Amino acid sequence: MKHAREDYSRIQDPKNIIPEDEPVFLLRGQDKFAPELLHRWAGKLRLSGGDPKMAKLVEEHAQSMIEWQKNKVSKMPDL
To answer: What is the pLDDT of residue 71?
Structure first.
């Protein structure tokens, strides 16, 4: 799997589900934009007729990011 950031290369896929050359993008809980992006993604999935269980899972994850940011840290993404 190909990460956008070199320092995330240590994040691996031990079951080899993601092909080695497939680009991936990681959003961290501290990224102040991550929860909104997840909510938008879930909305697009729903509007496109995608799996509502998947959309709900993503929305719940976005909410957990919001809660985490309240208790820990929320910041602009950086390199």
So the answer is: 94
Predicted TM-score (pTM) above 0.90 = no
Residue with tokens 């919001």: 66
DSSP string, 11-65: ---TT--S-TT-EE----TTBTTHHHHHHHHHHHHHHTT--HHHHHHHHHHHHHH
Q: Are 9 and 22 in contact (CB under 8 A)?
A: no
Helix pair angle (34-47, 52-71), 10° resolution? 170
Specify the amino acid at residue 33. Answer: F
First to last CA, the chain: 19
* CA nearest to 28, candidates 48, 5, 51: 5
Show the low-confidence residues of the chain (pLDDT under 50).
Answer: none
The token pair at 65 is 């990011």
